[in-house]
Amino acid sequence: MNNNHTMDNVLLIDRCLNLHKKLYPLIGKMYLITDQNDDKPSTYKEFGYDQIIEVNTLTNNDIIDLAISIVKTKNIKHILSFDDKYQEIAGKIARMHGFWFPYDHGVCDSVRNKAVTRNILSSKGLDNLPYKIINDETEIDKFIEDYGYPLVMKPLSSQGSLAVNIILDSSELKKAIQLFEKNAKNQIMLLEKYIIGKEYSFECFSENGNHELICVVEKFKSEVYCVGMGHRIPADLNSSDLFRMKKYVFSCLSGLGITNGPTHTELIFSPSGPVIVETHTRACGAHVPYLIEKLYNIDIQTLWIHQFLGSTIIDEIKKSKHSEKTGVVWFKHSNKAGVLDHIKGISETYNTFGVLKAEAIQTKFKTLENFTKRSEDRLAYVIVVEDDHDEALNKAQTAINSLDVVYI
């Protein structure tokens, strides 16, 4: 793996601060174009940026104009985006200047648009799930008439389970529409037939068209809003099912034109076989990278950075040794509306349950709803690593249940 980028100046288009921190020691100067938001760094030096350019609404034309100016004046060698929302435009600008970019033209936009993803995979015989882009409520009625319940309502392009609802019957439809309009403003609605089965995510890296699997994550989700309750690594799978799903995922990645970079692919193993939910041109989140490093001694975020800088990383993955242990991350969810004061019992989980890591996610004065509807609104998490598969899960769940949510 080539690490010689210490003289290279980099332009970033996103706000993935955790990755920027790891990138900074490896390169020369770091410049950032980003949307204005509440979590901006208090000082530029704190995160190593030489310059931050913030705009109220980041359009593609804004990004192109700003990037051209920065490339001309700052001796930029790489244009990067770790946020799949901005990767397509970052790739366009990189190619305009003759810089390498891991994803080919159109790939990132095709992957972000769930309907386009299904259309491409359907054309290659890899997907036959009924779906429909919704323009008005009459189209909802027609979809239900054709395919019936249950179904899934989701935004066409979004992250973090935002406004994703499972609708079991007609009594839940009106509420789901209201929640979509509230939580997914200006988003296009997509309906899909609900798939019954266990959900998994496949964490992969691709290089020159070759795909390597790092691990399979077993996903546990709430039954209504599809927000993750927790994750277990490795997933509880027999070798036959694992081989079948892995082959399917690799075929989907190739079918979508993904030849380089990390991917986070979610699928459901239905009675008739694996069905893709969605994939992403990025690595996983939700503390899974931490668990992967603890279990397999692979820092996937550092590999991600090196590959985006143009280095070869597949051999690093092939050399990794998998642990016989099991890791679980489990989340505390809101089940009562109110204003948060604090989460009680975090420090006690270390001695009482032997957790590896425990931390509150939300801070005082956070307004809580009756149910956690977005991944970003989860309250706290614990991480457990154990020799036994079931013990790891039970210990993590018990530790989370011991935490008390204290309201103001």
From TrEMBL:
One Gene Ontology term of the molecular function aspect: D-alanine-D-alanine ligase activity
Record-linked InterPro entries: ATP-dep_AA_Ligase, ATP-grasp
Alphabetical list of Pfam families matching this protein: ATP-grasp_4
Domain ATP-grasp: 118-309
EC number: 6.3.2.4
Keywords, ordered alphabetically: ATP-binding, Ligase, Nucleotide-binding
Enzyme class label: ligase
Keyword Cell wall biogenesis/degradation applies: no
The protein's name in its UniProt record: D-alanine--D-alanine ligase
Record lineage: Bacteria, Pseudomonadati, Bacteroidota, Flavobacteriia, Flavobacteriales
Gene: ddl_1
